[in-house]
Amino acid sequence: MNENRGLLDKRRKIAEIAKYIKTNKSDKKILLVEGSNDITFFEKFIPKEEKNNFFILGIQDYRYEKHIGEEDTTFFQNYKKVLKQKDYFFGGYGTVKGKQALILTIKKQWAEKEIFKSKRPDFYGIVDKDYDDEDKEINETGKLENTTFLLPDTLKYFIHSVDIIKERRIVSTDSNDVETMFFMYDSETVKKILKDYFPESTYLEDLSFSIECACKLGFIRKENKKRSLNLSFKAVLPETEPYKYEQYLEGNDINLQSILNEISKNKKNKIDLSQMPKSFKNLEWHYCRGHDLMVIIACYCIMKTALEKGKGLYSCKGKIANKNDLILFIEETITNDIINNTEISKYSKSKIFLFLNEIMSNSI
C-alpha cells in the first residue's frame, strides 16, 4: 500500500511539473537530483516558506515513460512536446543514464533559455562528485555526439561549450556522494544512530574499520577512473547483491588483492597497491564511496551482532528471505535514520548549502 501510494505521489509530482512547464511560466525552479534519498535529504535544505517555489525530482523518476504507467503517459507526451525533446532527456535510446542525463538536461535547458530566450523555469542540478574532477568532468561528461544528433546545430554547439559550473546551474557534492557528506559534516548524528545498530562497546571501532575498508576500496576505484583502466566492479561487487562484499571482509580489513584478482582477469594494466596511502586520515572523503561504506557498515553490523541480540531491527528477520535482503534492509534503515535526524545547520559550509541559498536569494 505504501509503495503504491509513493508511486501515485510521484506520478502526481511529474504531472504537476509537466502541467507547469506547459504554461510557460518561470516563477518556480526545478531542481534535479540523482536519487530518491537525495530528494529527501535536499528537501531539508529548503525552508518552509520557499518550498512552493521549488520542484525537486530525481532524474530517474521521469526518464522512462514505463515508470509512471500507461494511464499517465499523456503527461509525458505533453512534457516531451513542451520541451521539444526526443533524445537524452528521457533516456536517449538507452545511451544516457543517471548523472549524464541530468547534466545534459541542465545544459539543454540553459542553452534553450539563452539562445531562444524561451519562457520556462530555471533548471538546476545537484550531482554526486564521484571520482570526477569537478569542473572538467561535469562540463565534458558523456559522449555528446551520440545524444544530440536530433538537436539544431546552434544548440549542439552551446551544449558542447556551456560551462554550467561557472554559470551556477549545477553543483556537485562536497565529497563523493550524499552518504559521505553525512559523515563529513554531521558525524555526531551518525555515531548516535550507529550506536543502536552495533554492540555499544565496539561501535566506534566498527565505524572506523568500515571507513578504512571503504577508503581502500575507493582507492582502487579512483585509480581505475584516473588511469582509464576500464576495470569493471559490477560483476564482483554488484549494487543489487551487497552480500558479495562480505566475502572480501576479513576480520577488520578488506582483501583488496582478491577483488583485484577478480576484476583484473585478462587485463594487462594492473593497480599497484604499494601506491595506496598508508593512512586515510584526513583523506577519507577523497576516496570513500558512500554505497561501499553503507554496505560495509551493514555487513559489519550483521557480523558483530550475529542476529542474536533480539533488537527491534532484527525482529522482522523471519520476513526477510536471505542475507542479501537483510543487508539491503539494514543499509536503507540506517541511511533513512541519518537523513531523518541529521541537522542541516551542520552543513552550512557545504557547497550544496551555499548553492541552494544563492538560488533562493535569486542571485543566480
Protein described:
With 364 residues, the protein is an alpha/beta fold. It has two domains: 2-175 and 348-360, no CATH class; 187-341, no CATH class. The protein has helices spanning 2-22, 36-43, 73-83, 98-116, 134-140, 153-161, 178-185, 187-194, 203-226, 243-246, 256-263, 284-287, 290-305, 323-341, 351-360; strands at residues 29-33, 54-58, 122-127, 170-172, 249-250, 253-254. Strands 2-1-3-4 form a four-stranded parallel sheet, sandwiched between helices. Strands 5-6 form a two-stranded antiparallel ribbon. Strand 1 (29-33), helix 2 and strand 2 (54-58) form a beta-alpha-beta unit. Helix 13 (290-305) crosses helix 14. The longest helix is centred in the middle third of the chain and has 24 residues, at 203-226.
Question: How would you describe this structure in keywords?
Answer:
364 residues, alpha/beta, 2 domains, four-stranded parallel sheet, two-stranded antiparallel sheet, 6 strands, 48% helix, 6% strand
